[in-house]
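// run 5 | inverse folding | seed 20
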């Protein structure tokens, strides 16, 4: 029941970038996830890495994940 406006702008933009990369590139899921979490560590607050990781992890079904 969260609106996007409640989410930190930095987290929202990291998730936008990662989602675009998942949908429009051949980069493996784990690489996209790791890059997004690193961006969250650098530019977000203390809770950002866990939040970004959780959202992206829930976004991709287990069957669509390709091992790196």
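// decoded
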């Amino acid at each position: 029941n969260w609106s996007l406006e409640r989410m930190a702008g930095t987290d929202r933009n990291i998730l936008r970038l990662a989602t675009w990369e998942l949908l429009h590139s051949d980069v493996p899921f784990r690489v996209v996830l790791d890059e997004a979490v690193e961006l969250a560590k650098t530019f977000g607050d203390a809770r950002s890495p866990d939040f970004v990781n959780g959202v992206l992890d829930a976004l991709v079904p287990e069957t669509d994940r390709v091992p790196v």
